[in-house]
Amino acid sequence: MEIKYQLKSASQRRSTPYQPTENIGFGRIRTDHMFVMDYADGQWQNPRVTSFGPLPISPGAMALHYGQSIFEGAKAFLHPNDEIYTFRLDKNIERLNTSASILCMPHVPAEMQKQAIEALIDVERLWFPRQEGACFYIRPFMFATEDNLSVRSANAYTYCVVISPSGAYYPDGNNSAIRLLVSKKYHRAVSGGTGAAKASGNYAASLRAATAAKEFGAAQVLYLDANNQQIEEAGAMNHFHVRKDGTLIIPTFTDTILKSITSQSVLALGEHLGCEIKQETIMIDDFIADVRSGEIVEAGGFGTAAVVSAVGEYIFEDNTIIQVADGQVGPVTKKLYQLYSDIQNGRCDDPYNWLTQIPRLYK
Ligand SMILES: *Cc1c(COP(=O)(O)O)cnc(C)c1O
Question: What pLDDT sits at residue 270?
Fold first, then answer.
């Protein structure tokens, strides 16, 4: 793929390293450029790194009406050698195409996605925030642009990548545990639906439940399956818990759970953490009983944004609350976060070659 570079002039773009003095938050800051490419006549065309700014879109663009829109979320890190490394980007690339299949959208060949993201990061190097715990949050997305009001899959799309220089997700260093609302009223996905896709529509459909969560003083919803029997996930993160014997358990992936890359990575890290990590079907009633009896000692969520979020308590729609152990962030959660961020930031070995250096291509 031959990428066109339509860069801003030197005086209009960043020329010195980005050194924010305050925590810049997550996903708020943009950079000078974005990557864009169009799909028409059965082909991806006109790949370009161009000024960050509005995209032209027809009022009849099918994404706006029928919701063919998917995205990814990945991270890159600046290592002590001053080079930038993506973390498991190949998994995000693969998953974008899984989502595309679920929503009847065209695939973006893996090599094209990789080249697009690497080219954009390469020209935006100076935007990497020089701040403790910072990263580049990478947001690739694809949506239907064809101007047509028939209900069918579109034949024109845009694939776009933007980068958000981001600060530590939890500025206090991941020290507080959140509350989840366990909902029997709202559901995120049903078998045969789109739950396994990272689709915009899944998020639109979760906002009502998120509003309910707020009313219960909860940060997010823990979704159950449509029969209210099994634990699924928290909507922006997968769920996990730790038993008294140290075993860490993640619900078995089904077509109603988004297959988190963080979960998959944690599954691989068991031997480095010195504990057993496995997947099981978790019945909510057993879970509640085990939290109450102290058999379950830690719980939380996995996702790229926060890596791991500890859950200190669960609230139910009848206002019952159950607390996990002392309600604080537990030792396994802390250790996991430490190991994960040490690998990402190049502070320890990368045992599975999850990091890939961004080549210096643009002169
Ligand atoms: C993105 C996402 C996650 C987390 O997945 P990661 O690959 O670990 O970032 C979990 N659940 C849903 C519904 C998601 O969209």
Answer: 86
Structural domain boundaries in the chain: 4-168, 178-344
Provide the CATH topology of domain 178-344. Answer: D-amino Acid Aminotransferase; Chain A, domain 2 (3.20.10)
Give me the helix-helix angle, 331-344 and 261-268, nearest 10°. 100
DSSP SS3 for 332: helix
pLDDT, residue 344, reads: 98
Best residue among 207, 238, 253 to mutate for probing ligand 1, ranked by most atoms within 8 Å of CB? 238
d(CA 317, CA 181): 7
In the reported structure, the alpha carbon of residue 4 is separated from the centroid of ligand 1 by a whole-number distance in angstroms of 32
pLDDT less than 70: residues of the chain = 173
Burial of 19 (0-12, 13-18, 19+ CB in 10 A): exposed
- pTM, full prediction: 0.97
pLDDT of amino acid 362: 87
Q: Does 4-168 carry CATH code 3.40.50.2000?
A: no
> What pLDDT is recorded for position 169?
87
Does residue 303's CB lie within 6 angstroms of at least one atom of ligand 1?
yes
Q: Which atom of ligand 1 is nearest to the CA of 74?
A: 9
Whether residue 99 has its Cβ less than 6 Å from ligand 1: no
Contacts of 300 (CB under 8 A, 6+ apart): 177, 239, 240, 241, 308, 309, 310, 311, 333
**pLDDT tens digits, 270-279:** 889 999 999 9
Tell me which residue has its CA closest to atom 12 in ligand 1: 236
Does 258 contact ligand 1 (Cβ within 6 A)?
Answer: yes
Which one of 141, 260, 267 would you pick to mutate in the ligand 1 pocket, going by the greatest count of ligand atoms within 8 A of its CB?
A: 260
